[in-house]
Structure to design on (266 residues):
């Protein structure tokens, strides 16, 4: 039988991570949550959720690459793997309808699915609205993967569903993508996400009026045990981490819009 497995890798996300996991809890048959050495209240929240949901397991890790290795048993099985971040709030009701489609065999001929997001720069909690940049024209999310399409996914030490070497089954490849977000609008799509990446996401972060751009953690370098990885770690310890520049370029395209956010804020 087809199953849907969520994998969540978080670090210092205590303001939104509970909503993120609850939004996908009914969609997934199992959810693996890994806390990458958070220093705020994230771990306590994850422990509580793991106690509440039988199908959620939570663990702490010092190696982001563990989030990919945990997926090894699913390669070649009838499993959809859903990569969820602590800054992603999904429309849970629409996910239920989409789950029925996946379990019935829809999209079986593709490796991954691209879908719609609103990359938020503001949320009005009282009015239940969110303002930001839609994808498209911003970059589509592509975090739902058909593991029946692969024989294996060898990790290169980076976080889950990034990098590494994928051994595909015949008929599949990296180009096997259905970008449903390109043909369905925000109002139409069954798979849509409120992406709060530009908001304050941890109680340990100071409040800012401008969009929050988090440092780049360079997880692959932390896992690389070669002399190159050692050099990168050495340099990283002696310089402030670089702030992401590609996120505004990828996620702030087109017009600034405001949408009804009630389905995401329950």
């Amino acid at each position: 039988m087809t199953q849907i497995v969520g994998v969540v890798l978080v670090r210092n996300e205590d303001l939104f991570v509970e909503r993120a996991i609850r939004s996908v809890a009914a969609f997934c048959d199992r959810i693996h949550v890994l806390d990458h050495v958070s220093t705020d209240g994230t771990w306590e929240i994850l422990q509580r959720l793991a106690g509440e949901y039988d199908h959620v397991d939570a663990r702490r890790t010092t190696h982001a690459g563990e989030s990919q290795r945990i997926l090894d048993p699913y390669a070649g099985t009838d499993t959809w793997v859903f990569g969820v971040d602590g800054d992603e709030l999904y429309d849970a009701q629409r996910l239920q309808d989409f789950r029925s489609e996946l379990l019935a065999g829809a999209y079986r001929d593709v490796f991954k699915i691209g879908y719609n997001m609103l990359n938020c720069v503001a949320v009005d909690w009282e009015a239940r609205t969110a303002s930001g940049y839609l994808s498209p024209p911003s970059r589509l999310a592509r975090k739902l993967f058909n593991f029946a399409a692969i024989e294996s996914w060898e990790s290169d030490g980076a976080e889950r569903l990034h990098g590494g070497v994928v051994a595909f089954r015949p008929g599949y490849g990296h180009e096997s993508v259905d970008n449903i977000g390109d043909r369905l609008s925000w109002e139409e799509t069954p798979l849509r996400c409120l992406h709060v990446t530009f908001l304050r996401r941890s109680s340990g972060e100071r409040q800012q009026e401008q969009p929050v751009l988090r440092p780049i953690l360079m997880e692959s370098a932390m896992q690389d045990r070669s002399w190159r990885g050692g050099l990168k770690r050495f340099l990283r310890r002696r310089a402030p981490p670089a702030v992401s520049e590609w996120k505004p370029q990828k996620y702030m395209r087109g017009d600034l819009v405001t949408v009804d956010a009630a389905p995401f804020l329950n």
